[in-house]
């Protein structure tokens, strides 16, 4: 094994030498920018701005200016990134030095160990299953965020996750090679990620196993869970995740609506193939140009004959506002993707496009600070109304017949009501320019600074346009000269994107993507578990609704029977409400109401006489009505004239000392007793007369010595020790039970005073 360790040592040395060689080719970024190693970010930015302005190819005529400008930009990007700068300061290398290729930096070399096995003809030849194939295409998290995600808006990306010692990854290397050879000519990029080095990226993209293949479309992630060895399944996976109805089928019924739908500011394209289904290359091309061209797949022989499309070839036809004949077409056995992109890029705008977004403005009127290369943009200002359709049509005809090169002059129109801020910023201060149906000529020096000039005559179709046309041509010819400058300057903001989705559309799109990603992220076992849970929930909810429905039917049936019974005897209310019985406490009912009460039960007794019966029964009934459903309560009344001896003996049993009481029955009227038969105690309620002078004087005289006398429940008030029956000592019957409801609440709370006795006295009639 000694020779093996020596080979590994040789491999390490060669790797170090190669890194140093690569570093030498890159150059020192500090020397390129002319700053020292301890320079701050502000100093680096200042040096970059000065050098970029000095070596910009448009300003510097030196032959090496372009290469010098690229070096300055790369050096600034390295030093402006703290992580890359630290890696360069510590080791003299960056992450981009390892993995260099024309588009994504990568590094590839053959190790001495592999060369040894290759030269010996051993069966350990790694030419097909070489892990360095993945290294060549490997990207970092920074490259994913800065390069891959923005490019995914137009170019689908397949991202393959691997590690060095993953034998399954080695086995899939030949299939990945074939996948790259097949998909890259179609416009699909294939990159790899080392999962061991980029763990955060793997977690962000929900990578749960290795190897793993991920599809990136417009920043959205879709994880491929089938076998990587099947190219057909991968192609179907890509097709299924393309935007919904990206390329609809076109037949005789919808051909006119499709070709005349250019009001969305997009060119129309027809794709024809001598096969029933469209191939992936055209689908990817339609995805790439979807913001500028709307494609449709022809599914009609009549359309093919109308536009004279060869039946044995693939054909692509592009239409502008004129739907009678295409403005560009191509027919071949197999149209290469590069050829498709070239033709579509040259014809991706209408004859008179609308400035509907900042992207359209940048494509039609790019920034050009050099007067020699300036590009003019001639814009007709209209409103989003059918009233200006004829004005736009005549201006379109003029643009199509003009002799100006599109590389120098571009014609367009704009909606003033949708781009109000942009148009108003082009109106000079202190002037009375009316922008509607006027023409403005723009020259964009940079993204926000424009020079412009208005044509004072409006584009009115009712009047003779010859004079306006001649004046417009004279102005354009004059401004195309490098010595001529536009009159006015303005700083403008970005155009409003008229094609952007609304709030509800964005929410709906996010919900759809969330559902798709959730479905993609759930395996078969999880699907069964989720389906089982959902089925159980649905079953429980269904049974619940069924039970509620049956109960509702039963209630309706009972209600109908009660209604019938109520109609027969006119007593529905009494049948629906529980009955409240008030018993008469006398010797025959005494045992049942008091002595033989079950544990926890009690009897509420009202004391009255023959004169107060009719006045006290109704308020007593009203006070105890809320407790009618309580099965532990019974209600009764006692005629004090008949039960005075029993009541007197009950009071004597509750007093601590035996005392001969002289009770006036008239003063006992309105007293309410709560008798707890099993526990042998009672509670008392009694309302005293509050208006007589004698009662008030008695209260004031006895308040200090007997504080409980004011509480009618304290037991100190007997008030019955007078034989007088004068009016001053007779209580008002109308107010006797006003405080009974509050007393009942405190009774059931347990806050009333209890008077315990040893036995219940016998009940005998006086």
UniProtKB/TrEMBL annotation:
InterPro entries noted in UniProt: DnaJ_C16_autophagy_reg, DnaJ_domain, DnaJ_domain_CS, J_dom_sf, Thioredoxin-like_sf, Thioredoxin_domain
Domain J: 28-92
PROSITE patterns given in the database record: DNAJ_1, DNAJ_2, THIOREDOXIN_2
Residues making up the signal peptide according to the UniProt record: 1-24
Key words, A-Z: Autophagy, Membrane, Signal, Transmembrane, Transmembrane helix
GO cellular component assignments: endoplasmic reticulum membrane
Transmembrane segments: 527-551
Entry's Gene Ontology BP terms: autophagy
Pfam families in UniProt: DnaJ (PF00226), Thioredoxin (PF00085)
Subcellular location: Endoplasmic reticulum membrane
Superkingdom of this protein's organism: Eukaryota
Membrane topology per record: Single-pass type IV membrane protein
Domain Thioredoxin intervals: 105-243
PANTHER family found in the cross-reference section: DNAJ HOMOLOG SUBFAMILY C MEMBER 16
Known function: Plays an important role in regulating the size of autophagosomes during the formation process.
The protein's name: DnaJ homolog subfamily C member 16
Organism: Brassicogethes aeneus (Rape pollen beetle)
């Amino acid at each position: 094994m000694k020779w093996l360790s020596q080979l590994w040592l040789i491999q390490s040395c060669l790797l170090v030498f190669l890194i140093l060689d690569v570093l030498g080719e890159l150059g020192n970024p500090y020397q390129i920018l002319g700053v020292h190693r301890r320079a701050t970010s502000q100093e680096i930015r200042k040096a970059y701005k000065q050098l970029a302005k000095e070596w910009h190819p448009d300003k510097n005529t030196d032959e090496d200016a372009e290469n010098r400008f690229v070096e300055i930009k790369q050096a600034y990007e390295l030093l402006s990134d703290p992580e890359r700068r630290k890696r360069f300061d510590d080791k003299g290398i960056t992450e981009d030095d390892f993995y260099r290729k024309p588009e994504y930096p990568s590094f590839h070399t053959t190790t001495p160990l592999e060369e040894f096995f290759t030269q010996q003809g051993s069966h350990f030849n790694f030419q097909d299953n070489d892990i360095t194939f993945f290294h060549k295409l490997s990207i970092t998290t920074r490259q994913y965020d800065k390069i891959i995600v923005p490019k995914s808006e137009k170019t689908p990306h397949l991202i393959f996750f691997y590690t060095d010692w993953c034998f399954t990854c080695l086995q899939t290397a030949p299939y990945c090679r074939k996948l790259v050879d097949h998909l890259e000519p179609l416009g699909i990029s294939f990159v790899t990620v080392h999962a061991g080095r980029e763990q955060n990226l793997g977690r962000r993209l929900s990578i749960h196993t290795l190897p793993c293949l991920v599809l990136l479309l417009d920043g959205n992630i879709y994880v491929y869970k089938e076998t990587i060895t099947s190219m057909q399944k991968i192609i179907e996976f890509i097709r299924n995740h393309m935007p919904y109805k990206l390329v609809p089928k076109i037949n005789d019924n919808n051909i006119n609506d499709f070709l005349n739908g250019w009001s969305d500011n997009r060119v129309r394209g027809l794709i024809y193939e001598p096969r029933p289904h469209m191939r992936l290359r055209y689908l990817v091309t339609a995805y790439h140009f979807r913001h500028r061209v709307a494609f449709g797949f022809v599914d009609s022989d009549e359309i093919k004959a109308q536009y004279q499309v060869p039946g044995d070839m693939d054909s692509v036809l592009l239409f502008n506002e004129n739907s009678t004949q295409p403005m560009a077409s191509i027919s071949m056995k197999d149209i290469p993707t590069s050829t498709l992109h070239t033709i579509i890029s040259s014809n991706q705008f209408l004859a008179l496009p609308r400035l509907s977004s900042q992207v359209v403005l940048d494509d039609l009127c790019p920034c050009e600070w050099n007067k020699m290369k300036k590009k003019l943009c001639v814009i007709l200002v209209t409103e989003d109304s059918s009233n200006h359709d004829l004005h736009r049509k005549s201006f379109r005809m003029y643009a199509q017949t003009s002799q100006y090169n599109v590389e120098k002059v571009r014609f367009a129109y704009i909606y003033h009501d949708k781009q109000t801020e942009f148009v108003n910023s082009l109106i000079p201060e202190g002037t009375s320019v009316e922008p509607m149906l006027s023409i403005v000529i723009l020259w964009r020096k940079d993204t926000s600074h424009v020079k412009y000039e208005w044509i004072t005559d409006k584009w009115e179709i009712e009047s003779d346009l010859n004079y306006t046309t001649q004046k417009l041509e004279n102005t354009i010819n004059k401004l195309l000269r490098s010595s001529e400058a536009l009159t006015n300057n303005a700083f403008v903001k970005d155009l409003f994107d008229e094609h952007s989705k609304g709030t509800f559309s964005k929410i709906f799109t996010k919900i759809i993507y969330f559902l798709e990603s959730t479905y993609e992220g759930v395996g078969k076992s999880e699907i069964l578990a989720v389906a089982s849970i959902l089925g159980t929930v649905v079953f429980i909810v269904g049974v619940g609704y069924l039970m509620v429905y049956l109960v509702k039917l039963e209630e309706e049936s009972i209600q109908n029977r009660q209604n019938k019974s109520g109609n027969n005897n006119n007593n529905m209310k009494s049948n629906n409400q529980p009955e409240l019985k008030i018993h008469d406490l006398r010797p025959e009912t005494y045992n049942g109401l008091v002595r033989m009460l079950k544990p926890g039960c009690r009897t509420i007794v009202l004391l009255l006489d023959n004169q107060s019966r009719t006045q006290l029964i109704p308020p007593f009934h009203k006070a105890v009505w809320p407790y009618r459903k309580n099965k532990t309560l019974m209600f009764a009344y006692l005629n004090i004239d008949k039960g005075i001896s029993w009541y007197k003996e009950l009071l004597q049993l509750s007093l601590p000392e035996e005392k001969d009481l002289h009770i006036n029955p008239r003063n006992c009227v309105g007293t309410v007793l709560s008798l707890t038969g099993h526990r042998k105690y009672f509670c008392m309620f009694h309302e005293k007369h509050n208006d007589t002078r004698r009662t008030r004087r008695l209260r004031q005289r006895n308040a200090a010595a007997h504080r409980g006398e004011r509480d009618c429940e304290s037991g100190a008030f007997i008030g019955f020790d007078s034989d007088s029956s004068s009016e001053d000592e007779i209580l008002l019957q109308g107010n006797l039970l006003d405080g009974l409801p509050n007393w009942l609440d405190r009774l059931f709370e347990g806050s009333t005073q209890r008077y315990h006795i040893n036995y219940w006295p016998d009940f005998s009639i006086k």
